[in-house]
Design goal:
Largest sheet: 7 strands, parallel
Structural class: alpha/beta
CATH superfamily of one domain: NAD(P)-binding Rossmann-like Domain
Number of helices: 12
CATH topology of one domain: Rossmann fold
Strand order of the largest sheet: 3-2-1-4-5-6-11
Oligomer: single chain
Number of strands: 13
Strand content: 15-25%
Length: about 325
């Protein structure tokens, strides 16, 4: 494997982006982050994600939209020609994409095209594209392999991610841009977005609210701890593979009910389940075959689900304590 020391990360303030940046800085690399601070969830939480990075001498934040060519040029200018790009920025979420399909296509497809065009003009060392397990569509079998057909996405979000892979391949073919597409499988852990299941259920449990379970709770997900996801991204940064599509999952599945049981146990609370009809766009199963990533990226997920939930709960407790301290200080200043 080779090593890239100048990295441009889009979606820098997000769950995966900020965790990746902390890892890259700890490894001695120079990082430029690009983020628009989209209001999908609170900006202050995203700023907290980048608190450590923004005080680091080898990190620079550029605020801007991936569709804005001037902002993208500023980010590439800060990173320097020959930097490697990790493109994580996107409008996320299956259900919101059903309500805003045009906006999802604009950000996720046109924005990715802007980034790829700039990467070619700036002679980028490579381009790592964040795809999604949602491209596999509705399937009851598994594990899912990268060679499986992915022609039937069941949400606009999934379709934009498949479109991103196709556009990325066209740039690789036309311009010999090294590209690695990573299909993430249900990442969870510290800094997780508030809308994602583990975080959302934890917040509701702590507030004493019921947990909405869509379907009968038997849907299964390949929950993958954030540190394992980030290790896979670092592997994709450093690999010499010129073109590849790789699953980044844990390689095993957990049902929604099993996830809730583990989370409630760690919190010491009893869940009140509110069963609702299954939602349009939701798949019943995700399950990654990770053999390709193991071979090409030295990918080796190490965190078992219960251990990951324990770490997540510990982070949530720390964050809640910090919020209480801040509120108390504000009260004293009045």
């Amino acid at each position: 494997m080779s090593r890239s020391d100048s990295i441009l990360v889009t979606g820098a303030a997000g769950f995966i982006g900020s965790t990746l940046i902390d890892r890259l800085l700890a490894e001695g690399r120079t990082v430029v982050g690009l983020d628009s601070f989209d209001p999908f969830y609170p900006e202050n939480e995203k700023r907290e994600n980048l608190a450590a990075a923004t005080s680091h001498e080898r990190f620079q934040l550029v605020e801007g939209d991936i569709r804005d060519e001037a902002a993208v040029d500023r980010a590439f200018g800060a990173a320097g020609d020959g930097a490697l790009v990790v493109h994580l920025a996107a409008l996320a979420g299956v259900r919101p994409s059903l309500e805003r399909p045009t906006e999802y296509a604009d950000v996720n497809v046109r924005g990715t095209s802007v980034m790829l065009d700039a990467a070619v003009r700036r002679c980028a060392a490579g381009f790592v594209f964040a795809s999604s397990s949602s491209v596999y569509g509705e399937r009851s079998d598994g594990p899912f392999r990268e060679s499986d057909p992915v022609d039937h996405p069941i949400s606009p979000y999934a379709a934009t991610k498949k479109a991103g892979e196709l556009i990325a391949h066209s740039f690789h073919h036309a311009h010999e841009l090294p590209v690695r597409c990573l299909r993430f499988f249900t990442a969870y852990g510290p800094r997780q977005r508030p809308d994602l299941a583990v975080r959302k259920f934890a917040d509701r449990l702590l507030r004493g609210e019921s947990l909405p379970v869509f379907g009968d709770g038997s849907a299964r997900r390949d929950f993958t701890y954030i540190d394992d996801i980030v290790s896979g991204v670092v592997g994709a940064i450093d690999t010499n593979v010129s073109w590849g599509v790789f699953n980044l999952g844990a390689g095993r599945t957990i049902s929604v009910l099993e996830m809730i049981e583990s989370l409630a146990h760690q919190l010491g609370l009893v869940p009140n389940l509110d069963f609702q009809r299954r939602q349009t766009g939701d798949v019943s199963n995700t399950w990654a075959d990770i053999s390709a990533a193991q071979s090409a990226l030295d990918y080796a997920p190490a965190v078992e689900f219960d251990a990951g939930v324990e770490r997540f709960v510990a982070w949530l407790a720390t964050r809640s304590a910090a919020a209480r301290d801040t509120a108390a200080q504000r009260g004293e200043q009045r």
